[in-house]
Amino acid sequence: MYTEQDIDLLKQKGVSTEQIESQLENFKKGFPFLEIVSAARVGNGILKIDDKEEKIYLNKWSEFLQSHKTVTKFVPASGAASRMFKDLLSFYYSDENTPTTDFMKTFFGRIHEFAFFPPLNNLCTEVYGKSIDQLCEEDRYKDVLKVLLLDEGKNYSNKPKGLLLFHSYPEGNRTPLGEHLTEGVFYAKNADNVVNIHFTVSEEHKEMFELLTAARKLNYELKLDSKFLVSFSVQKPSTDTIAVDMNNEPFREKDGTLLFRPGGHGALIENLNDINSDVIFIKNIDNVVPDRLKENEAHYKKLLAGVLVTMQERAHDYLEKLDSGDFNSEYLNEMLSFTQNELSIHNSAEFTSEDDLKKYLKEKLDRPFRVCGMVKNEGEPGGGPFIVKNIDGTASLQILESSQINKDDKRSIDLFNNGSHFNPVDVVCGVKCYQNNKFDLTKYVDTNTGFISLKSKDGKELKALELPGLWNGAMSNWNTIFVEVPVSTFNPVKTVNDLLRPEHK
Questions:
Q1: For residue 380, what pLDDT band results from cuts at 50, 70 and 90?
Q2: Rounded to two decimals, what is the model's pTM?
Q3: What is the pLDDT of residues 233-272, one digit of tens each?
Q4: Region of residue 172 (left: phi > 0; alpha: psi -120 to 50; beta: else)
Q5: End-to-end CA distance of the chain
Q6: Angle CA(305)–CA(340)–CA(423) in degrees, nearest 5?
Q7: CA 278: distance to chain centroid?
Q8: Three-class SS of 69-132
Q9: What is the DSSP string of 440-496?
């Protein structure tokens, strides 16, 4: 079935034929839908922390930062900004010459407010001999967009979000990369004044990220009295997945080459796994705020981290007891209660012996931990928190996307659509066991939670396979705690006009 050319390509990518066969089987069989037990709500899987508890957790995190443990900020930043400028590109390639939609009228009517306006205005003056205002007076809106979006100018539509100017400051305007460095100081700076931050980027843009970091890092260090250790990685070629035709046979390009596609953000579990850190914060590249709002944001980051180290410490204490044999049946029941009430792991099975219970507790406690901030649902797109049935018969907290829901099952659809909270990707991870060894995170992925999507190449339809999402199936077998956080912590920039919202001013 495989040619010499195929074998060479697999070797280059670090992909085995067994992996390919497994992926082809997934295309043929499909993936099972997840069985939702209930939506997670406050009092049912989501913690609402009161002022007294809050103080305890914040102190816990403050103590942890002074303990010489390692803390890292992990920022997925590989996505291009093309979707952010979708409306602008639509107008640029349309037959219209003047803005007709509310979106376009807002963009041009408030163009002075964007952080990228000054350099864009300078470049327009350089290219056309006229300012943006003069060009707009002459209905030359598309000339402005050409300089902003295309490779003849700033090329914003093809650059990653992390490198675009988002926020205005008197001392110079700032990119998301700069904002992530700055915010790290507020909650991730260790006892040695160091902030570790890791960006996952595309191979194409890695050098641009490195150059901008090299150019700006010293300024940030001096201004913020901190040292930044910044690292980058790219999605591994070994996580690319094979594409198939509509008959589930490997899709071949015109020259006969097998077609592989990126496996989606779930592939980043490999990058996360390579980070040797006690605690890792995960947050998307576009969810940043200007300095005036950072204290509020940092407050809840520290809160989530305090919950994480508190809960993980308890689990580690229990595991030590289990390994030493220093426990009685009452203590075992306390551990079981912890898994049920604090970790929301529901198990209806009867334990036939103490050894049986001990084995179960070890299995459930000795896993990576994550604490996820959850925001009240205000109609934002994205996944949400649910209690879901697992293969072993237990039920636990998971973050589900719509692609994981059976569209023919009314109950599942209703539960998904009427969830009280959604996932803003605000995660803090504990990835070391109680003996201080790092977990192999790839062993805690539920491989049954990938999904198949329809794409095309060269005018031919194909099926693509996405790996279990990073905070979905890739973390399915982690211990999970959901904590309610305010919507003020969630300020993503999905379209360019989001930068005009008060939160970004």
A1: low
A2: 0.95
A3: 999 999 999 999 999 999 999 999 999 999 999 999 999 9
A4: left
A5: 58
A6: 45
A7: 19
A8: CCEEEEEECCCECHHHHHHHHHHHCCCCCCCCCHHHHHHHHCHHHCCCHHHHHHHHHHHHCCCH
A9: -GGGG--GGG-EEEEEEETTEEEEEEEPPPTTTGGGTTSEEEEEE--GGG----SSG
